[in-house]
Amino acid sequence: MSEAAGPGPQVEADATAVAEAAELARGGEARARAGDLDAAVEAVRGAAPVLLHSPRGAQGTAACLRTLVRIGNTDRALDLLLPRVDRVATLEDPEDRMWFAATAAWVLRHARRLGMLPERVGHEDAATALTHLEATARSLAGEHANGDPQEAARALVAAHDDTGVASEPTLPPTRLPLPPAGDSMLRPPASAAEVAELAARARDWRLEVDPALERLLRGWLETREAALSLLSAPGHWAAAALLDRSSVHLLRDPVRERLRLEEAVSAAERGEDEEGVAHGRCELAVLDVREASARFGEGAPEVDRARERALAAVEDLVAHGWAETAALSRRWYALSTRPADAAEQLLRAAQEHERLGQPVRQALCLLDAAPPTFAREGEAGHRLLDEAERLAGEHPVLGVQVLDLRARVARARGDHRAAGALYARAAAVRDVPDGSRMAVLFAWCDLLVERAEWGALEPRAADALALAVRLRDPVALAVAQRHLGLSWLEQGRAPEAAELLAAAAPVVREHVPELLGPTTWALGNAALALGAWPQAREAFTSAAEAFEQTDRLEEASHARYRAGTAAWDGEDLATAATELDAAVALARRSSTVPVLLEALRSRAAVRAAAGDVDGGLAALDAVLADVERLAAARPSGEADDDAFDAEELEPDILREGAHVLADAGRTDEALERLTRAEALVGGEFELVLRAERGVVLAEADRLEQAEPLLRDSLEQLRAAGMAEERVAVAGALARALDRAGRVEDAEEVWGRDGPDD
Predict the structure, then answer these.
(1) What is the Cα–Cα distance from 565 to 562, expressed in whole angstroms?
(2) Quick one: which of 234, 292, 694, 742 could link to 271 by a disulfide (CB 3.0–4.6 Å)?
(3) How many degrees, rounded to 5, is the angle at CA 403 between CA 398 and CA 407?
(4) 630, 638 in Cβ contact below 8 A?
């Protein structure tokens, strides 16, 4: 369950609906205790949309929260609790307050146990909030006005019994737990000598690109603080500095990386390791480039100066004869800062490793150089790939990278079947680092998204999500959530999709901004499927902003249009008008004719719906000429496959205006527009327009005119095999007959021409 999209539309329900939802929630809690986890999940999904947004739903909401904890999803319980934890202070019924406070405290205790508890809860620090909630529940139980206080206390204890709480999540997680105490990937070193042995092993494994290196380094990150207390001799500090420099990229946070590299430089100085000091300072210079690029943008003078300093630091390593370290730093500079000459820098690193007799590192640098080389010259890229494969031999890590690159090449030339087969081979290789496996899974997922193979995407995305949880990598988790959510959305599982996409969005926003547009676009579609109009509008607006920031103006115009129609569906006409105006502006900037057409039509309809019928009609009638001007002004190379044809669309505009007039009670004007539209078309569209004239008359209760027209239309639609249109016309006629007191005639019409089933 997620707050951003929620499992359904957020509307205030009546007392009966709240009572029914609360009963469903209690039943779900019972099913969770009985081990029927699927039924428990369905109960929460059915009850939560009603209870979460109702002041009368406190006890039912508490039952939903307890169910989520019991099925192992404290993460989702916390997601639902945090935005409404302050409700405890506003609840008027003491029993509601007692239950909500007790359950909130229970959720927070489990969140603390799992390492998920944020620093602040509501307006207090987490520890204070937890204490206050527990005290509130105890106090209210002691003052229980509706029965025996001791019985109330026993009921609270029974409801919040930790027995039977699942140890593993039933639903895909939205938050990552901290590692359980003592569950380190590496036994803490028992002595400084062991730290030195780890460093030596790390250096050797780095040269060999050993798949065990990643596990060793993650273990060092988990046990580092305890290990530092063992160090004394210079050689031990130099060893710790090497481990810090080797593992810093796993932190995935520039601030933490800088602090760790500065500590590594200090440790190398204590270790009297000049090469280690220079290496650490070089890595800090490379980090300066990354930070300058993020702050000022590529090409800024600040970035250029940072690049000069970083390359000077690399060359200083060369000048001192530290060739291996120079090659490592040169590769990291090229991969992490993506300079224009990345391929050249990587090839230089490969040459340095070749001179040092390090073929595995040489092959790795050639593989890194292949993608930018392919972008400029395909044959040269193939030569690098072939040479790297020769050098790699049977090396599993490099073999996976070769397969991955060959899959990318196949995908680039449109051979998706070959690409999929290569990714399948790469994913099946054993004894590769988790990071490499994750990269393959994500690339495979991207291919499956491109091919719209949603059923095949689901297991791959689930594999990636499980791996992200094992690695406790929040960024990888968000990307996997996005893939799995998209798969579920396209397979009709909108509630589950909304939960994952909403959880992914904030992490993607911060760490993978290039995915924010696609992620929130999918979230908007999930919210639409649930009828959650405000959440859909918010998601599409986020998508539009993300697309616009990356100059993807066509996608931005589509997203703004969807935001506008979502607001319109939610009857927020002012917001709809604002979003549609933005869509029009973006469509003009990007020359996106289809969006301009639909956004202008919708904007005119919203204007009419807001009360300015004549203004809306005038705007609607001006749409085709406006769009035609944009279409004519586009360069010939930008024209759509189907050229814009105003004459072909004129009947649609007339028809749309007719419905605006009919809704405003201006029946004769509506009929006149439909008659004009009918004269412009033929075939099935003519039958539809003729029937709609009858529907307009029927809805205006002009049955004498409507009935013969609609009965003729029913015969024509039946003969043409237009079942959907026939049923709609039958419904309009039946309703008009019923309003006129002709119930038997209405039943006869509906029985003959209503739905076949």
Answers:
(1) 5
(2) 234
(3) 145
(4) no
Between CA 398 and CA 471 the distance in angstroms is 21
Q: With contact defined as beta carbons under 8 Å apart, do 49 and 9 qualify? A: yes
Rounded to 5°, the CA angle 529-533-535 comes to: 95
Identify whether the C-beta of residue 695 lies closer than 8 Å to the C-beta of residue 725. no
Model confidence pLDDT, tens digit, residues 457-514: 999 999 999 999 888 889 999 999 999 999 999 999 999 999 999 999 999 999 999 9
Task: Confirm if 185 and 218 have CB atoms less than 8 A apart.
Answer: yes
84 is written with which tokens? 């409404």
Amino acid at 639: A
Are 43 and 25 spatial neighbours (Cβ–Cβ below 8 Å)?
A: yes
The DSSP element (H or E) to which 206 belongs, if any, is helix 192-208
Quick one: CA dihedral 595, 597, 603, 608, positive or negative?
negative
Using only C-alpha atoms, the chain has a radius of gyration, in whole angstroms, of 32
DSSP string, 387-411: HHHHHHTT-HHHHHHHHHHHHHHHH
Q: Do the beta carbons of residue 202 and residue 246 sit within 8 Å? A: yes
pLDDT at 292: 96
Q: Which of 252, 194, 189 is nearest to 222 (CA)?
A: 189
**125 three-class SS:** strand
Identify the CA nearest to 337 among candidates 385, 304, 364: 304
Are residues 73 and 172 in contact, defined by beta-carbon separation less than 8 angstroms? no
566 with 536: CB under 8 angstroms?
yes
Contacts of residue 681, Cβ cutoff 8 Å, sequence gap at least 6: 651, 689
The band of 181, judged by pLDDT with boundaries at 50, 70 and 90, is very low
Q: What are phi and psi for residue 492, nearest 5 degrees?
A: 85, 15
Residues 733 and 711 sit within 8 Å (Cβ to Cβ): yes
- As a whole number of angstroms, the distance between CA 474 and CA 455 comes to 25
Those residues whose C-beta lies under 8 Å from the C-beta of residue 649, and which sit 6 or more positions away, are 597, 624
Report the SS3 class of residue 249: helix
- Residues 550-555, mean pLDDT to the nearest whole number: 95
SS3 747: helix
Phi-psi region of 163 (alpha: psi -120 to 50; beta: other; left: phi over 0): beta
Q: What percent of the chain has pLDDT over 70?
A: 95
Specify the pLDDT at position 679: 95
Q: Which region among 4-8, 282-286, 579-583 has the lowest average model confidence (pLDDT)?
A: 4-8
- Are 287 and 254 in contact by the 8 Å Cβ rule? The answer is yes
Is the dihedral angle over the CA atoms 586, 588, 591, 593 positive or is it negative? positive
H helices of 635-666, in order, are 646-663
Helical segments of 530-612, H only: 533-549, 553-569, 573-590, 593-609
Strand bridging mode 120-121 / 124-125: antiparallel
- CB of 523 closer than 8 Å to CB of 508: no
pLDDT exceeds 60 at position 716: yes
Exposure string for 360-395, b = 16+ CB within 10 A, e = fewer: bbbbbbbbbbbbbbbeeeeeebeebbebbbebbeeb
Global pTM? 0.81
pLDDT tops 50 at residue 3: no
* Nearest partner of 582 among 604, 608, 556, 606, judged by Cα: 556
Using DSSP, state whether 121 is helix, strand or coil.
Answer: strand
**DSSP-assigned letter for residue 119:** S
**Bridge partner residues of 125 (DSSP):** 120
User: Which tens digit of pLDDT belongs to each residue from 510-531?
Assistant: 999 999 999 999 999 999 999 9
pLDDT of residue 642: 55
In whole angstroms, give the CA distance from residue 401 to residue 392.
Answer: 10
> 600: closest CA among 582, 618, 578, 623?
623
522 burial class (0-12, 13-18, 19+ CB within 10 angstroms)? buried
